[in-house]
Amino acid sequence: MAAQSKLFQRLIWLVDTIYSAGHISRDEIDRRWSSARYNDMHETEYGERNFHRHRETIQEMFGIDIVCNRTTKEYSIQGLDEANGAGMRSWLMNTFAINNMVNLGGGMEERILFETIPEGTRYLSTIVNAMRDGKQLYVSYQNFVRPEPHSFLLAPYCLKLSKRRWYVIGKPDDHPEEADPRVYSLDRVKELTATDKTFKMPKDFKASKFFANQFGVDRRITEAERIKVKMSAYDANYMRTLPIHGSQFELERNDEYSIFGFYVAPTYDFIQELRKFGSTLEVLEPAHLRDEFKEESENLAKMYEK
After folding, report:
1. 181 preceded by cis ω (within 30°)?
2. For residues 152 and 173, is the Cβ–Cβ distance under 8 A?
3. How many CB atoms lie within 10 A of CB 34?
4. 3-state secondary structure at position 177
């Protein structure tokens, strides 16, 4: 586990270094690595063999291409701005870049605050490697319903971060009859290890397509609906600058309110996201969702009257 974690840090350091520089020579990569915090072996250079081997690993694991300009003999990053996978790669880059900045900043760790992810991050490198190598995972898992953990083999398809929790999505061997993969929260995993048993990734599975109609990871409802909400002009700024779903669009805007539309499955996760705006948000359509919010408001009023 420790060796995998060190390799993971080294790979992301390489991507971040090239990405931050824009264009960089091999000599400059060697120079920066010689004084890098993650160079715990105190190597004087990155190493030509390591560099090209890690380039291939980075492409396989993250879909990020490190390319060489044969004229200038400088390296740069390609693929970060592509729509498919850009969110994961951007998160990866931003997280490591900020973490690296804090570590090198000398005392800045007390002045830059992060939202912590309570559990599960220690399994990430194991899962990523299993996804890359096509290996099944042994998982001991305890959800909020079962009194005891249960164990199974899992073919890991993808990872997703949602609301400070990491999730692994895949096919478990204890539910072979189900067509769709299942979603497991890493904070409910009691044990997770890689096995030698292989699996074949379905050619038609795309993580972005699997969650296209969803907000978060809740898939108890998968059919998308057209949803319309009205918000106060002030709170609309939060919705506008940080859209809550890729289908979001603004239908109307004035000094008093804005109206936003979505095409998304009205799952529990999505409804909870709308509820956080409280009385500054009104559901206009569909009727069944408006009635649900109305009933919720009436129940809250009755509870506080008591």
Report:
1. no
2. yes
3. 13
4. coil
Identify the CA nearest to 161 among candidates 238, 88, 64: 88
Report which residue type is found at 216: G
**pLDDT per residue as tens digits for the range 168-181:** 999 999 888 888 89
| Count of residues in the chain | 306
**Structural domains of the chain, ranges and CATH numbers in brackets:** 2-110 (1.10.10), 121-208 (2.30.30), 225-305 (3.30.70)
Q: DSSP character for 106?
A: S
The token duo for 37 is 């915090």
pTM of the shown model: 0.69
Q: Which residues, including other chains, have CB under 8 Å from residue 262's CB and lie 6 or more apart?
A: 226, 227, 228, 229, 244, 245, 247, 248, 249
Q: Which residues on adjacent β-strands are paired with residue 154?
A: 137, 172
**Angle, CA of 174, 154 and 56, to the nearest 5°:** 160
pLDDT in tens, 232-263: 999 999 999 999 999 999 999 999 999 999 99
Using alpha carbons, select from 11, 255, 264 the residue that is nearest to residue 128. 11
Residue that has been written with the tokens 């004087």 in this structure: 44
- Mean pLDDT confidence for 145-161: 90
Are β-strands 135-141 and 189-198 bridged in parallel, bridged antiparallel, or unpaired?
A: antiparallel
How far apart are the C-alpha atoms of 157 and 9, rounded to whole Å?
22
Is the separation of the CB atoms in 199 and 135 below 8 Å? yes
Rounded Cα distance between 235 and 257, Å, is: 9
For 141, which DSSP code?
A: E
pLDDT digits (tens, 9 = 90+) for 52-77: 999 988 887 777 889 999 999 999 98
Q: Which secondary structure element, helix H or strand E, spans residue 62, and what is its range? A: helix 48-62
178/184 Cα distance (integer angstroms): 15
CA distance 34 to 193: 33
| SS3 at position 28 | helix
